[in-house]
Amino acid sequence: MNQRYACVSTSYLNRFDAVEAKVEISVVNGIPTIEMVGLCDSSVRESKQRVKSAIKQSGFSFPSARVTISISPSYEKKSGSSFDLPIALCLLAATNQIILPKGYRLFCLGELSLTGDIRPTPGMLARLNVVQDKSILAIVPEDTVKEAAIGGYQVFGARNLRQICRAFRRIGAEEKLEDRLSEIMESESIYSSSNSHISCVGTEDQDDEIMDISFLKGQEKAKRSIILAASGFHNLLLVGSPGSGKSTAVKILSKLMPPMNNDERLQFLQIKGCAGLLSQQDLSDCQRPFIEVPQSCGMRQLHGDIGASSPGYVTLSQGGILFLDEIAEFPNRILDSLRTTIDEKEIICPKQSQEMIAQRPILIAGAMNPCRCGKYLDEPENCSCNIVGRHQYMNRISGAIYDRMDIFCEMYRVHYDGLRKSLSYTSDRENQLQRDRVSECWDRQYQRCREENRPLMLNGQAGKGNLSELFRVPQNELDYLADAADKLKISARGVGRILRVARTISDYEGFKDVRRRDISEALLYREKK
Amino acid sequence: MLEDTLAADLFVAEMIFKRCLNRPLTEKLKSEGIISGIRDMVYHNDLIKNYLSSVITDQSQKNRFAPLCEYNSRKDHYNRQADEFRKKGIFSVSVDDQYYPESFRSLSGMPQVLFCKGNVRQLNTKSGSVAVVGSREPSQYGMHSTEILTESWTNAGVQIISGLARGVDTIAHRVSLINHGKTIAVMACGPDLVYPQENKSLYEQICEEGLVISEMLPGQKAIRQYFPARNRIMSALSDIVVVIQAGEFSGTLHTASFAAAQGRDVFVLPSQILDTGFKGNLSLLRDGAEILVEPSDVLARLSGVAVAREYDEIRRRLKKDKILNMLEKTPEKVKHEDLVDLVKDGIIETSLTSDELTQITHIPFHILAPILSELLLSGEITEYQNRFSLTTARCSSI
Fold first, then answer.
1. Is A524 close to B386, i.e. CB distance below 8 A?
2. Which of B352, B354, B355, B362 to mutate to test the interface with A (most CBs of A within 10 A)?
3. Which of A218, A224, A377 sits opposite B366 (nearest CB)?
4. At what angle do helices B365-378 and A516-523 cross, to 10 degrees?
5. How far is B232 from B237, CA to CA, in rounded Å?
6. CA atoms within 13 A on the CB side of A403
7. Residue A282, Ramachandran bin (φ over 0: left; ψ between -120 and 50: alpha; else beta)
8. Where are the domains positioned within chain A?
9. Does B366 contact A219 at a Cβ distance shorter than 8 Å?
């Protein structure tokens, strides 16, 4: 026997990123052994058995020689089962049982069943993302073709090993393959990603009767608050008695957000894919993430666990809303940990102390009762809490999140007339109208950032820096605000928040400069101690 | 044919005093459509003449009402008088004028014509008014209390009403003027004369910086029997009546009973029980008047009363439906002040949240919000427990 060698490109997942890798196989005379090198962990080493069985079941022969499989880069730990297919193809090529198509670099990945079927692996988008060389012939499990299509990658999806080998046989030693490649592949039922149509479900189709903003009739302040929160991506806190509609309002807020653009969507799908959380619905959904954090959530679930490679709620909610219902009932350390997320836009995974920069802004929405018994706003005379208790309850979240909320809004239970209205409620279908306005508002904000040569961001995310300059506030309006801050005893940070909200109001109404009435209105949403 | 309003009012007042003209008659004439306001007595004198001759059959009655029909023949006399008085700075306010005190309209028996000298706007002042009455020979305690109380009230922007009499009245007026406050002197004689003579310089100062008014015709000398009647005007013009010192049978007690009849709160200064000069005070207190311990007692009560009165005015002025209609159809045309009035009107009775205000006034929230903030900042409304209400402490010192 001669010395035989083959190599194939692939990629594997390392936490939330993918890494490009190369599988090399060398077959040499000697005692039949299979050696794997390249810091492979046990899950990779198990490939040996699967590959052996798959090859044999597919009608090929497994060499009786010394096989060395090397996966590079050799200094990185590898795990996962996606090396099965590249190893199998590489081995078949090394033993001259198939000929790899010339003129193309072969890129493949997938897990093999014992009969040679190719199984899907998570994180397809991420894996394809890292491949530098675009002139590859990519063969991936059939079930992941849709995912790849969203990312705009040209891949072929195969169902089993036999298909691929038959296709390769037909290709033979042909040069100049481009035109015939798809034809040949398709003849073996290996379909390319350009055939799969992914339509993004428009957000209008997802509007339903109940979750329309017109449901908030009678709670005009809340209605305006969520529109402004959506328009400027401001953190929002709703305070109200149980049953006053806070959770509904936040859900409606999520419906008001414009759909994600392509980049955001790709990143979102990538993260979810890596975590193995991708569902069919996610692929066709354009809506921004809306994550409701359960009360029993722990630090690991919130921020993610690198060891287990699971992204936390915070990571998953990037570009969308992180909703904390009954925010005052969350343990202090959980709320404190969110502080750095909001401020530094970092996500700190607690176990390994690894940091991930939150690339997209997160809107934190909170809902809470005004006091322990919940009656303080609607029926103050029936409130069974004393003053100290009430202050303590409000203080539970002060400092940590309270300071970073831009918009505060009280919600009252709708009175009898309002209830009657809601029972005979018919939606006005206002959601689409508001969504369009919010979209326009975002455009105006981005436009302003472009004009000022700053990175694109929305008002609620504008952190440090000279806000009055960035926001184009005339001097006399600033004086008015300073005066008001004096009279109403607003802190410096509070002034910054009011400016941001005022700027959003101007943008929503379509004015270039902040007007006095915008500042006056923004004053109503300030925090109340 | 625009007659001289002062002349017309002089005629009308004279008729009233001669008992030719009284309210029932005016009402009758109004219902017949002959006159629309009291000054029309002058303008439509002929019509009245005809009407009266047709209605009144009895000869004695005819004699009584004869002077009513004589305006046209005596026109020059009235015009001359008017010119003379005008030179002295006197003008008149009749019931149809815009400056007529609103507080008179809801009471019966109030004069329909007033003769004044000074700043007419004080008749309808927005900050509260307090009538200060007391004995002509007050004790040291009475004098000192008057000084302290009046000074405090004046500094809070309250208008002081009194009668320019010796004693308590003089002190009240003087302290008010010294502290650059507003004061009204209600005379028992015509507004051009001074009684008592020793207050002449004070009178002149009030003509300059405050307001002097009288029900009496200019030139009329003070009549003793008239004084109690004058007191009813003092009480009607004010929001609260304060009794500093009253003896057992003093004239001040009349003022207190007028006040009670008119629905005004009466605050009485307490005294030692053995002090005879204050026996009237003690009996008023026993009868249910409020005890005056410190200036803020009155100030606190004042605000509630004044607010209610001011917003009664707003309500009447307000063409609410018209504004709401405009808001719906042409929102840009609605005036800011009208919106502000709508808002204030909404929270007169109770305190409301911003959502409730939106429902009641039908102003869209994004238009309502800046108005609320601006009113909050200017101090006209306050917020408590997220509910907005009109600021009750309207005087600046609170």
1. no
2. B355
3. A224
4. 80
5. 9
6. 14
7. alpha
8. 4-195, 203-523
9. no
Q: Is the dihedral of CA A140, A141, A145, A146 positive or negative?
A: negative
Reported as a single tens digit per residue, the pLDDT across B323-335 is 776 777 766 767 7
Six-digit token string for A356: 């991930």
Q: Which residues contact A192 (CB under 8 A, 6 or more apart)?
A: A145, A154, A155, A156, A157, A182, A185, A186
Give the distance from residue A484's alpha carbon to the nearest chain B alpha carbon, in angstroms: 7
Q: Which residues of A touch B369 (CB under 8 A)?
A: 221, 224, 520-521, 524
Average pLDDT, chain A: 82
Q: What's A4-195's CATH class? A: alpha beta
Burial class of residue B324 in the structure, from the number of CB atoms within 10 Å of its CB (0-12 exposed, 13-18 middle, 19+ buried): middle
Cβ contact, residue pair B366, A483, below 8 Å: no
pTM of the model: 0.63
Interface check for A527 against chain B (CB to CB < 8 A): the answer is: no
Taking an 8 Å cut-off on Cβ atoms, the answer to whether A220 and B355 are in contact is yes
Any CB–CB contact under 8 A between A485 and chain B? no
Q: What is the CA radius of gyration of chain B?
A: 24
Per DSSP, the three-state class of A291 is strand
- Nearest one of B398, B397, B395 to B125, comparing CA atoms: B395
Residue B182: C-alpha distances to residues A259, A488, B191, B232 (Å): 65, 31, 18, 20
In chain A, the residue whose alpha carbon lies closest to the alpha carbon of B371 is A520
d(CA B69, CA B71): 6
Residues forming beta bridges with residue A239, ordered by sequence position: A368, A410
Note which residues in 177-236 of chain A have CB less than 8 A from chain B.
Answer: 218-224
Q: B356: left (phi > 0), else alpha (psi -120 to 50), else beta?
A: alpha
What tens digit of pLDDT does each residue of A141-168 get? 888 888 888 777 788 888 888 888 888 8
Confidence label for A262 from pLDDT (cuts 50, 70 and 90): confident
Check whether the bond before A242 is cis (ω within 30° of 0).
no
Give me the torsion for CA of B255, B261, B265, B268, rounded to 10°: 40
Domain A203-523 belongs to what architecture? 3-Layer(aba) Sandwich (3.40)
Q: Name A251's Cβ contacts closer than 8 Å, sequence gap at least 6.
A: A211, A290
Ordered domains of chain B (ranges, CATH): 5-87 (no CATH), 118-303 (3.40.50.450), 318-390 (1.10.10.10)
Question: At residue B234, does pLDDT exceed 90?
Answer: yes
The predicted-structure confidence for A13-41, as pLDDT tens digits, reads as follows: 877 678 889 999 999 988 999 999 998 88
Choose, out of B353, B372, B373, the residue to mutate when testing the contact with A (most A CBs < 10 Å): B373
d(C-alpha A496, C-alpha A206), whole Å: 36
- The C-alpha of A221 sits at a distance from chain B's nearest C-alpha, in angstroms, of 6
B354-361 helix and A220-232 helix, angle to the nearest 10 degrees? 110
Element (H, E) at A314: helix A313-316
Residue B352's φ and ψ, nearest 5 degrees, are: -130, 155
> What ipTM did this prediction achieve?
0.74
- What would the DSSP string read from start to end of A328-390? GGS-HHHHHHHHHHHHH-EEEETTTTEEEE--S--EEEEEE-SSSSS-TTT-GGG----HHHH
Contact at CB, B365 and A223, closer than 8 angstroms = yes
